[in-house]
Amino acid sequence: MLSDGAELAPIDLREELTFSQRHLLWARNVPLSRLELRFARLVPRHATRIVLIDDGGDLAVRAADVLAQAGYTGVSILDGGVTGWEKAGFELFSGVNVPSKAFGEHVEHDSGTPSISADELDTLIRNNADMVVVDSRPFDEYQRVSIPTSTNVPGAELVLRIHDIAPKPETLVVVNCAGRTRSIIGAQSLINAGVPNKVVALRNGTMGYNLAGFSTESGKSRRALTTSEDGLARAKAAADRIAKRFKIKRISLATVDCWRTQEPDRTLYMFDVRNPEEYAAGHLPGAISAPGGQLVQATDQYAGTLGARIVLIDEHEVRAAMTASWLKQMGWSDVSVLAEKGHEKGFPAAPVLGNVAALEHTVDAAALVRLLKDGKATIVDLSLSPAYRKGHIPGAWFAIRSRLKEALAKIPVTGELVLTSEDGILAGLAVNEAQALTQAPVASLHGGNAAWRAAGHPLSTDMNMMADEPLDVWLKPYERPNDTTSAMSEYLAWETDLLPRIARDGTTKFMTK
Questions:
Q1: Element of type H or E holding 379
Q2: Which of 70, 57, 60, 3 is nearest to 352 (CA)?
Q3: Among 22, 322, 373, 426, which residue has the fewest nearby CB atoms (within 10 Å)?
Q4: Is-contact 511 246, C-beta < 8 A?
Q5: Which residue, 476, 470, 469, 428, is CA-closest to 448?
Q6: Which SS3 state, helix, strand or coil, does residue 420 take?
Q7: 10 Å Cβ neighbour count for 328?
Q8: What number of helices (H) and strands (E) belong to the chain?
């Protein structure tokens, strides 16, 4: 299936941390606990070939039932799960976003992408060299930690903005990210685009800079958000060269409308690769916000179906053409560019499997306050663990929905069992499941924790009521609570070890031109 060229959605249903320890290279992680919230956007076509993956438990069977009820017809289960795959002699991988990370290593090796060390960069900064440092991550990551003097220019924006950031050809351009991938892809994007400047990637990014003993910054807000007429003209000329080099198709809205009529037989993803602010100000209906740098960095989080048709949207074409060039080199053969903007505003809610509007058995925040005051309620919070850690209803237990049976065995339920989650949708979907596991009446909090906060009620950061381990998230090395130095070193070593591993796997179709 992985090699026959037809559409395929391999879906791993385990929690993200468990998934990160060992999984198939091309598997998309959609935990059963959040299946209804994430699946429809990731795998929109109901007749898609889907292979569900777990590790010998019942996750795949439970997911197959949910998908069947939602109208998905092409569902299979991988016999033996990841252990069966391994026993058959195939390769397993650790980490997340592995295809994209491995592709970055492939690009550096194949293209000889130049780089500099943290020591070299520090010397240049101290000597006030004629240089710009551009951070190719999303703005929120940049604000968390950044290299001194750097300006935030997310990956797909680099070719669009660089002519205004570094107008003199003798100015050195240094591209950085947290680790390696976005530094490499960003630097090579500028080189492929033919900018006259010398361009280098910062070897091992901000993590490498920290490990070398240099101080980073936080809370910075330097951003490149505008482009001059001359800068835009030069960027468009560069994008045109890239489009010709990689044979990227430019299409019209009429073509998109035609393709939409074919969606029962072919998956169509429409990704708006501009920055999120531009997307929110106006986008085409049906388009998903997928800033180009992140789409290349984490393709598996946007496109659940391998072999699908992809349309990249950007009214200037520059970001779309650069993103398309990388997706094609990653093996996505059917990628097109659409130069449109659209007028739909904001961020549309993700589609949810199941009839959410028909959910019953809810209590509002005021009713929950009364129940708690009388000692007649036990709260179980199904939010992601970082959200729970940031703030939850006082006295609420943390649990993972797909492991609710095990969690309830540890929770002394008094009175009504009230489920909550970030916005209450997930909690509502879990009511019937919870009711089958307890004699107590079960309800969900209408509007979830968001409604609780909006009503002005307090939140707690107490972490003493964890009915389950926080297996639901993989934390970045610098987010981990213990020994971040070792975690960063191990992560960077993991990235550089990906090339021989994908060679052993043998299923990638990476190329560089």
A1: strand 377-381
A2: 70
A3: 373
A4: no
A5: 428
A6: strand
A7: 18
A8: 23, 19
**Residues listed for the chain:** 513
Phi, psi values for residue 107, rounded to 5°: -65, -45
Q: Is the pLDDT of residue 97 over 80?
A: yes
Q: Which residue has the tokens 């044979």?
A: 247
Provide the 10 A C-beta neighbour count for residue 396: 24
Q: How far apart are CA 2 and CA 8, in angstroms?
A: 7
Q: Give the strand order in the sheet containing 309-313.
A: 249-251, 335-338, 309-313, 268-272, 288-289
Per-residue pLDDT tens for 467-478?
Answer: 999 999 999 998
| Average confidence (pLDDT) over 344-348 | 97
> What whole-number distance in Å separates Cα of residue 424 and Cα of residue 403?
18
The pLDDT of residue 483 is 85
Interatomic CA distance for residues 487 and 493, integer angstroms:
10
Q: 135 φ, ψ to 5°?
A: -95, 115
Residue whose pair of structure tokens reads 């060992």 in the numeric block: 22
What is the C-alpha to C-alpha distance for residues 103 and 181, in angstroms, rounded to an integer? 8
Instruction: Count other Cβ atoms within 10 Å, centred on residue 483.
Output: 11
Q: How far apart are CA 317 and CA 333, in angstroms?
A: 18
Q: pLDDT, tens digit, for every residue of 406-441?
A: 999 999 999 999 999 999 999 999 999 999 999 999
CB 185 within 8 A of CB 212: no
| DSSP string computed for 99-157 | HHHHHHHHHHHHHT--EE-HHHHHHHHHTT-SEEEEE-S-HHHHHHSB-TT-EE--GGG
**Contact 313/320 with Cβ under 8 angstroms?**
yes
CA dist 270 and 284 (Å) reads: 9
User: Using 50, 70 and 90 to split pLDDT, how confident is the model at 243?
Assistant: very high
Place of tokens 């560089």: 512
| Mean of all residue pLDDT scores within the chain | 96
**CA–CA dist 349, 464 (Å, integer):** 33
Burial class from Cβ neighbours inside 10 Å (0-12, 13-18, 19+) for residue 366 reads: exposed
Going by C-alpha positions, the residue among 395, 420, 400, 390 that lies closest to residue 470 is 400
Query: Domains, the chain, ranges and CATH?
Result: 9-96 (3.40.250.10), 102-240 (3.40.250.10), 245-338 (3.40.250.10), 356-454 (3.40.250.10)
Q: Which three-class secondary structure state does DSSP give residue 358?
A: helix
* DSSP bridge partners of 93: 23
| pLDDT tens digits, 281-301 | 999 999 999 999 999 999 999
Global pTM? 0.96
Task: Judge whether 417 and 485 are in contact, CB under 8 Å.
Answer: no
